[in-house]
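[Q] Does anyone have a clean structure-token version of this?
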Amino acid sequence: MVGQGSAQLFAGRRALVMGLGIHGGGLGVARFLAQAGAAVTVTDLRDAGQLAEPLHQLADLPIRYVLGEHREADFTDTDLVVRNPAVPRESPFLAAARAAGVPVEMEMSLFFRLCPAPIIGITGTKGKTTTTSLCAAMLTAWRPDTVVAGNMGVSALEQLPGIAPTTPIVIELSSWQLEGMGEYGLSPHIALATNLSPDHLNRYATMDEYAEAKRGIVREQGGRDFAILNRDDAIVWGFREATPAKILPFGRDDTGGDGAWLAADRLCWRFGGIEHTAPRATLRLPGDHNAANALAAGLAALALGAPFAAIEAGLAGFTGVKDRMESLGEIGGVEYINDTTATAPAAAAAAVGAMTRPTILIAGGSEKHTDFADFAAVAAPRVKAIITLRGDSTPRLTDELLRAGLGADRLHGPLDSMDEAVDRARALAAPGDVVLLSPACASFGMFRNEFHRGDAFRAAVARVAAEAEEGR
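[A] Here you go.
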């Protein structure tokens, strides 16, 4: 169902959705527009077999499909184009649409204009899904009607019918989604940036270009808005120069004003001059990076009006997010942790740095044209062994690890399957060790995406558990 206002806006209009996507990135917006009465065409370079699941989910709607190709006429003879975030902004088909005077939107640009409630928007290179989910847990403890959506597999537009002006909204935003919002001068009421490090350099020509896309989260804010920025990250902290919003810093130190910081074994917040603290042990996630995520999430919840009791409840009840430092349990005294979404070197370095037990790391994969030097400097002296997966970035990763001092006797691979990698890790591990999948690379080639990679790791670990049980 869609709201009456949405139906009035889109009824009878011709809308082209570019990129249905195997993740369903265009599924929610296609369904929303069709239910709002638009004449919807979906175009995707993949064929019907590759898109079987999202097509099945849309089977009850009167949608026209152009699959296996894009046709320029579909982009110029329409009232609206909505592009999937994965579609490059430089696409010649989008250029043709703009040249013909056809507006090019994304789901987020539509949602931000239609949403009646203030929005918390969260971005960053790493930690944004954990921070979004943790902030949502805090807000849900206060308001069970909290909506969480965005770059985490949940369509924001499809949540619109249940959103009132007072509904808490938390949206995870990728750099690609922020590009689409920037075209229309849109930023969230509460903008939060976790950190920034090189990533997606297969999509952006330079780190500066990537940072500029992320900066869009604060660029269009006003004086009554809030920008929650990581004071320990020089690039993110520089975002304060791009916004007139009230700056709320978070980091290691107390700046004396409103913000959030670490103090020995406590998490600390100050908002409106009122100070709150919670034992760091309340947070059930390891690592300083997760402490920073918790500080930022709590600050956003306080800025939206949540009571501190909700922040405490959210912290106490939050156990993490699937595929992000996800513990799969212990087998023979060895813990297996799935951090498949660590597709950037900085994310994998944070995961390795959070380990307090001897660690066997599974890493490697496909190219994002990032620099592995800093990751290698963290991993080489800390890990017991590194097992690499075959991929076009793995040779560069291997060279950096060896250059950083990793002995060849601690390097295994590249291997051709996740089953091989987990079996090798099992052979190398001793009780008290950790086997950590934190690849520092994209997944394409061996896997469909990082979530498929995580599923393969989960299945391999389940097999090892079953074999260990049978061997008792």
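[Q] Thanks! Anything notable?
[A] The longest strand covers residues 39-44.
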